[in-house]
Amino acid sequence: MVPLGHYLFLSAVLFAVGTVGVFLRRNVITVLLSIEVMLNAVNLAFIAFGRFQGSVHGQVIMFFVVTVAAAEAAVGLALAIALFRHRESLNPDAFTSLKW
Amino acid sequence: MLLFLLAAAVAVAASLAVVLGRNPMHSVLLLIVSFAALAALYIGLDAPFAAVVQIIIYAGAIMVLFLFVVMLLNAHREDEGTGGAALGGRPLAAGAALAIVLAAELAWAVLRTRRAGGSWMGAGPESDGTALQSVRTLGGVLYSEYSLAFEVTSLLIIVAMVGAVVLARRES
Asked: Considering B78, B104, B120, which residue would you say is the last residue of a domain?
C-alpha cells in the first residue's frame, strides 16, 4: 500500500501547479481551469486522509467540494461570457474598471 | 505502487500541460486526462464511488460546460496582444517564484510532520478499506450526519443557477 505521505506530496505538487496557472495565465477560462486543478489536489488530500483514518468522511467532503466546484464553474463561466460580451477579450487585464 | 506512480505521473504531466498550454481547448481536454488519472488514484484509495463521481460529474458535466464556453467564445485565438505565457519579465518571474515557494512550503510541511513523530505518514493504513467502498455507508453518513450541509448545498446550486442565468443574460 502506498503511504499517506506520497499522496500528500502529489496533492501539494498539483496544488502548486494550479497556483502557477492562476498567477501566470492571461485568459479567464484557463484561470478557472487552474482553480479546478487546485480543487482536485485538495480532493485527493481529503480522500487520502479519509482512507488512512478509516473513515468515510473524506469522501463525503469530496462530494461537497465537487458540488461547490460545479457552482463555481457555472458562475465563473457566466461571468466570462458577460465580460467577453463587453470587452471582446478574455484577458483579465482588460477588465480593470468596476463599471462601464 | 505501480498504479500510484503511473497515475501520479499522468496527473502531474496533464496538469502542467493544462497550465502551460496556449490553446484553451487543449487545456480542457488535458484536464479530463488529469481527472481520469485522479479517478484511478481514488480507486487505489478504496473510494470507487468517488472515482465514478469524478468521471461522470467532473469530466462529464463540468468539463463539457467549459468546452461549451470555449467554443462559444471562440477562444482559441486567446493570448494575443498582451497575452499569454509571452507575458514575460517581472510578472512571470514573480508568479513562478511565488508558486515555487508555495510548493516548497507544502513539501516542507509534509516532511516536517513525518519527522515529528508522524510515523503514520510513512505507514500503510491500519484498517481494511473494504468498509469504505460501500455506497450504503456513504449514503448513510451523507443523509444523516451531513444532512444540513446537503440541503444547504442544494440552495447553493439554485443560487448559482440563477446567478449564472442573470449574469449571462443579454441586456435588452
From this structure: B78
Residue B104 maps to a domain:
no
Which B residues in the span 103-162 are in contact with A, Cβ-Cβ below 8 Å? 103, 106-107, 110, 114, 120-127, 129, 131-132, 137-138, 141-142, 146, 149, 153, 156-157, 159-161
Q: Are residues B69 and B141 in the same domain?
A: no
Measured in whole angstroms, the distance separating CA A93 from the mean position of its chain's CA atoms is 21
Is B12 at the interface with chain A, CB within 8 A? yes
Q: Which domain holds residue B16?
A: 1-78
The pTM score is: 0.87
A52-86 pLDDT, tens digit per residue, is: 888 889 999 999 999 999 999 999 999 888 888 88
| Residue contact A59–B161, C-beta within 8 A | no
Instruction: Please state the domain count of chain B.
Output: 2
For residues B19-37, one letter each, b for 16 or more C-beta atoms within 10 angstroms of the residue's C-beta and e for the rest, the string is: bebbbbbebbbbbbbbbbb
Complex ipTM > 0.85: yes
The CATH code that applies to domain A4-94 is: 1.10.287.3510
Looking at residue B84, its pLDDT comes to: 46
> B51-79: per-residue pLDDT in tens?
999 999 999 999 999 999 988 887 665 55
SS3 A94: helix
Helix axes B63-72, B24-44, angle to 10 degrees: 180
Q: CA-based angle A67:A69:A73, to the nearest 5?
A: 120
Asked if the structure places residue B54 within a domain, the reply is yes
The maximal CA–CA distance of chain B, rounded, in angstroms, is 64
